[in-house]
Amino acid sequence: MQTIRVNEFPPTLNELNNLHYRSRAKKKEYWEALIMKECLAQRITPMGKISATFEFYFPDKRRRDLDNYGFAAKFCLDGLVNAGVLKDDSYNEVAELRFVKGGIAKPKCLLIHLVEVSA
């Protein structure tokens, strides 16, 4: 298992829906580059077929819709492909996606757990 720690959250689906398409494209580019940078800094090595768990540590106890944060997988998986950690982000390489609330943490953070599974 490999874990990537990112000390910020990707935009939620609600946030993206309210943006102009050019602003959305810039957010996507930013997150792909950030994930790629974190993979290099944290020495994440290439993997085969994976199960990915996105664990969100929120800064407070407010109620949040986890499915709004589930959209984060798109930008993060594209970043993993760009970093060379995954060959592709299709069903051939990503067997499972999970989204869980990790608890309270200051500063907030996102942990992406990657577990290689049998093909």
**Biggest β-sheet description:** 4 strands, mixed
Percent in helix = 25-40%
Identify the strand order in the major beta sheet: 1-4-2-3
Strand portion: 25-35%
The secondary-structure class comes to alpha+beta
Brief account:
This protein has 119 residues and is α+β, with helices and mostly antiparallel strands. Helices cover 35% and strands 28% of the residues.
Description of the molecule:
It is a single chain. This protein is α+β, with helices and mostly antiparallel strands. It has 4 helices and 4 strands; from the N terminus they run E-H-H-E-H-H-E-E. It has helices at residues 13-17, 21-41, 66-70, 72-82; strands at residues 2-6, 50-58, 94-104, 109-116. Strands 1-4-2-3 form a 4-stranded mixed β-sheet. The longest helix has 21 residues, at 21-41. The two termini are 16 Å apart.
Features:
single chain, 119 residues, alpha+beta, 4-stranded mixed β-sheet
Outline the fold blueprint.
Blueprint (H helix, E strand, L loop, with lengths): L1 E5 L6 H5 L3 H21 L8 E9 L7 H5 L1 H11 L11 E11 L4 E8 L3
Parallel strand pairs: 2-3
Antiparallel strand pairs: 1-4, 2-4
Helix pairs in contact: 2-4
